[in-house]
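Entry 14. Ran structure prediction on the chain below.
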Amino acid sequence: MKQKHFIDIHKGLNSIFILLLMYYFNSWNNIVAWIYLALHGTYGYMWVLKSKIFPDRQWESKTSLSYGLFIWFGLSLYWFSPYIIISGNSIIPFSIPMYPVYIFFCITVYILGVFLHFTSDMQKYIYLKLNPGNLMTDGMFKKIRNTNYLGELLIYLGFSLLALDWTPIIALLIFIFIIWIPNMLKKDKSLSRYKEFDDYKSKTKRFLPFLWLI
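Output, C-alpha cells:
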C-alpha cells in the first residue's frame, strides 16, 4: 500500500469517529461537538477528494504495514480535540463569557487554513504537471516556500483551539517539529539543485511569515 492509503482512510474516518464519541458520551446537545464535526469532518472528506483529484507526490510512495500503522497512530493524536470537547474534560469550561467569540475566531482560522492549504496544493500539482523541471516561485509560493503547511497549521489550530486544552496543541507541535519541519528541510535540499533557488530562498520564508527561522 501507499502512504496516502493509510492517510486517506484515517482522515476519511474522522466524522465517523467523532459521531461515535458523541454517541458514547450522549453528547447530541453539545453545539461545540457539532461545530467540530462540521470542521474536522469536512476537512477529512476534502483531503480524500484532494488525494484523488490532485495528489501530493510526497504520499505516493509505497510503505510497509508497520510504517502505515505508525502513520495511523500519529494521525490519531489529532483526535484528542474531539475527545476533550465531547467528554467535557477541558481544563477551561466551555461556558466562559467570550466563548462564542472564541468559536468565531477558531472557525475563521480554519477557513483561512483551508484556502491556503488546498489552493497551494492545487497550484503545486498543476505547475509540476505543466512545467516539469522548473522552480515554482510565484503565486501561493511567492513569499512562503511551504504555504501548504502554513494552511495545514491554521486548519489544525482551528480544531485544536476549540478544545480549550493544551493536549491538542502539544500533539500539533509534535507534528510540526518531528514531521513537518524535517519535510521542509528535505524539500529545500531537493530544490537547491536549481540555480535560482538561493535567490528565491533569500526572498521567502520557510513556513511562517515574519519568522526567519521557520
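The chain has a mean pLDDT of 90. Will compare against last week's run tomorrow.
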